[in-house]
Specification:
By secondary structure, this protein is an alpha+beta fold. The protein is 56% helix and 20% strand. The chain contains twelve helices and eleven strands.
Length: 374
């Protein structure tokens, strides 16, 4: 997020009274506690800490995109903040105040003067671009080195059978073609590898297997044995790491979908409004996702860091002020309407800013409400 401070505005008399400022800080601290407490209770302290680290690291990358663009365009930068609200730690270095702020969710770059509309657009766009690019690189590396995504390839080949399954007619080396008439596709294959079946209410299922050039239909009894799968069958491990080309496709497709969120949202609202409403989440929901990723495995946490970064980049492209997409549209309006009367231009831009800001507040309210109710 980019904040602009015009050099010809005197803001010295706009500070709140000391007591009121502390009251606001206490209220914000209570809100943060309400939102984050369920995450700590459900996921644990260590996953919560790593989830918070992931979230703030993604935010730092996003804000660095704004910072680099501003410095490249030689726009003075007053402050770089990780977190929102009042700063509880800060240090001035190379003319920039580096802050750690009260609310550990969000961040901003404060520009030092009024900026030309075309520069506003590029500075605002740099944040989402940095997030999407970083997310793509991290997901590609995680997928390439097998950190979180492994592909199960057919055929589903039997490696070992229990005596009961062997008596039924199964042999090591048999390739499973279908189960109860269902072709062995990816979801069913995963279930079978984990020992789950679609016939839990019955004592047996029908399995078609290929043995050399023959197809055989075998009735397989469902066993209840804590030391083996319910089918009494173990399969060859046919999982493998994805190739560079496949990893590139996974990372590219995921990044592309997340970058297209602003364009897909209106269509989804028209087609599935209830599903969209249920998917809206606030800071707590995002933090819970990040925390649960570490609870699964550190490798999955690494992959989810890239996924979250790309999601932040796509989300920030929403054309709502104060998101980066809203700032970009605002700059474009200023540019397009530069030859119109001042009152007309001001009216159009102000209407857009107020309308989209209210919509963004509604989204935030819905997300926070869902977090607290959770």
């Amino acid at each position: 997020m980019v904040e602009e401070k015009c050099s010809d505005n005197d803001q010295s008399g706009s500070s709140s009274p000391h007591a009121l400022l502390w009251l606001v800080r206490v209220a914000l601290a209570l809100l943060v506690a309400l939102v984050f407490r369920p995450v700590i209770v459900q996921e644990g302290v260590l996953p919560f800490v790593f989830g918070l680290m992931m979230l703030n690291f993604v935010i730092v990358v996003h804000e660095l995109g704004h910072l680099v663009a501003a410095l490249w365009l030689r726009i003075p930068v007053e402050a770089f903040s990780v977190g929102l609200g009042s700063a509880w730690a800060s240090k001035r270095w190379h003319g920039i105040e580096w802050r750690l702020s009260l609310i550990p969710f969000g961040g901003f770059v404060e520009l030092g003067e009024c900026v030309r509309e075309r520069y506003k657009f590029f500075v605002a766009a740099a944040g989402p671009i940095a997030s999407l690019l970083f997310g793509f690189i991290v997901m590609f590396l995680a997928t390439l080195f097998g950190a979180s995504v492994r592909k199960v390839v057919t055929p589903l080949t039997i490696a070992h059978t229990s005596p009961l399954a062997r008596t039924a007619g199964l042999r090591p080396g048999d390739v499973v073609v279908s189960v109860d008439g269902q072709p062995v596709k990816e979801d069913l294959q995963v279930d079978l590898r984990k020992g789950r079946t679609t016939s839990d209410a019955r004592s047996a299922l029908t399995m078609v297997v290929r043995r050399k050039d023959k197809r055989l239909s075998v009735t397989v009894p469902i066993e209840v044995d804590a030391n083996s799968s319910r089918l009494g069958i173990k399969f060859l491990d046919s999982s493998r790491r994805l190739s560079a080309k496949e990893a590139l496709a996974v990372a590219g497709k995921t990044t592309g979908i997340l970058a297209a969120q602003p364009a897909l949202l209106p269509v989804m609202l028209l087609q599935q409004p209830r599903k969209v409403a249920q998917s809206v989440t606030g800071p707590g929901g995002v933090l819970q996702l990040a925390s649960s990723a570490y609870a699964i495995s550190p490798a999955y946490w690494f992959f989810m860091t890239g996924l979250l970064s790309a999601a932040v980049g796509g989300f920030q492209l929403l054309p709502l002020v104060p998101f980066d997409g809203g700032r970009m549209v605002e700059a474009l309006l200023q540019r397009v309407l530069r030859n119109t009367r001042e009152t007309v231009r001001h009216g159009v831009v102000t209407t857009y800013v107020i309308t989209t800001f209210i919509f963004a507040l509604v989204l935030l309210f819905v997300g926070l409400t869902r977090d607290i109710l959770r």
